[in-house]
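Quick check before the chapter quiz. The format below is the same one you will see on the exam, so make sure you can read both the input and the output lines.
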Amino acid sequence: MTASAGAAASTDTGPPPSARRRRAATAGALIAAFGGFAGFNLTLSALPAYAVRSGAGPSGAGTLTAALMAATLVVQPCTPWLFARLGRRHSLALSGALLGLPCLALPAVSTLPALTGLAAVRGLGFGMFVVAGVTFTAELFPPDRRGRAIGWYGAVVGVAGVLGAPLGIALARRGAYSPVFTLAAGTAALVLAGSLGFPRTGPPVRPSRARSDRRATRGTWRSVRPMAGPLLVETASTAAYGVVFTFLPLTAAAAPGALLAAQASTVLSRLGAGRLIDRFGGRPVLVPAGLATTLGTAAGAASHTPALLMAGAVLFGAGFGAVQSATLILALRAAGDRPGGLALAGVAWNIAFDGGTGVGSLAGGPVLLLGGPAALFPATATLLAVILLLDLRFAASPHRGNAGGPPE
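Here is the expected output.
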């Protein structure tokens, strides 16, 4: 991605929206968030099971998830350029179409190449959608109100996960795949409906050509560097998330209840953390939230102590939800309100989220095989603690600005 593309990402925003336009756009963003993530969670477990039933086997099921996430990561660096070309409304609508239309075709196909291709198309839509969600929501509010806005957005995303994932699993276990895909297409239609809340704009601005690709790349790296600390914490926390949600069901009989408690705790935490961030800044919230996430992750080793496991899950969810809001706000403030800064922060944060989740899920398997849950969960917690300490040292550097602090 070039610096000129990132700089043009917010060129269609125009002057600050009026209160009425902001309310309409905020409602649209939340409707779209619920629809997109509900559909994603509906199919996250059901589609691999459908592939297994179609004869692809476990490796084929893994291929579908890998194709989905690979396409998500590939498209995310290109999203500022797409937003500049298409504008907010059309970008969000296109992401919804890419998420929903393949679901209508899924009942008619069963071969692994066809399923993989449809999963990749949905990954492109999901990659556009997640960056658009955090970027457009952040653009609607001034910095001193952005924490609450991101908190509400995160809470809606959490509710979509709490409702969508169990329903998708339950329907898949009954072999009701057609209803799953129909529901997923219907929830994707909410993304298109939500896009209508954003105002119509003039013709999209064509990004100007960079004078030098090398100079543009250097500019992009200079822009990302101030976000390095929060992005590292985000990567480490989502690696812990990948470990907990992938391997706890394999190591603890009480895992279903514990994970549900963690999800519910995450939703409540996102709401509360937003207000605290607006009042005190991102850094004072990130430190205790990171500590709670670390302790909650370590509690995953208590696989034969349901009460301790449940308490750790609640603590993990509370910390993880607040870490998500705090790291995003810190990245946004480090990027500044200059044109393209918010879009670049949204891209970087989402890549950190997806990359961390993937790394945790992949690296956790060998550790679990070698040392069991007594090694996996404490080792993951230790890694997160080390990253938090490094971020604190980075933030305390005299050459570091006060990004993420409360507004004056």
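If your answer matched, good. Residues 1-17, 202-219, 401-408 have pLDDT under 50 and may be disordered.
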